[in-house]
Amino acid sequence: MNDLSDNQLYNLLKEYDIVDRSALDEALKETENGKSLYEILTEANLVDDESMGKIAADYFRTPFIKLKQTNIEKEVLEIIPEIVAKKQLAIAFEK
C-alpha cells in the first residue's frame, strides 16, 4: 500500500464500508504515532490483506490476483530479474 497515503486509504475504506467507521477514525488518529493506516488496521485484524489487495487493485485499475495458493514455475519467476523485481515489487506468475 506504499503508493496510497493514509488519507487516500481512509477515504477508500470509508467508501467501501468494510471497516467500522469509529474504528477507522481511531486507526487514522493512531497514524500520528508513525505507523501507517494499513499496518494499524491489519495488525488489529480490522481488515485482511485480501480485502486490502482488492481495494488497491480497484483503485489502481488493475486486476486482483490471488497468488497465495498458486504454484509459479521457476522459469516464469526468472522472467523478471531479481534486482528489478525487488526494486519494482513485481513478480511474474504466468506467461
List its salient traits:
mainly alpha, 6 helices
Explain the overall architecture.
With 95 residues, the chain is an all-alpha fold. The protein has helices at 6-16, 21-30, 37-43, 49-59, 74-77, 82-88.
Structure at a glance:
53% of the residues lie in helices and 0% in strands.
Output the structural class. mainly alpha
Helix content: 40-55%
Specify the number of helices.
6
Number of strands: 0
In terms of per-residue confidence, which ranges show pLDDT below 50 for 5 or more consecutive residues?
A: none
How would the blueprint of this fold be written?
Layout: H1 6-16, H2 21-30, H3 37-43, H4 49-59, H5 74-77, H6 82-88
Helix pairs in contact: 1-2
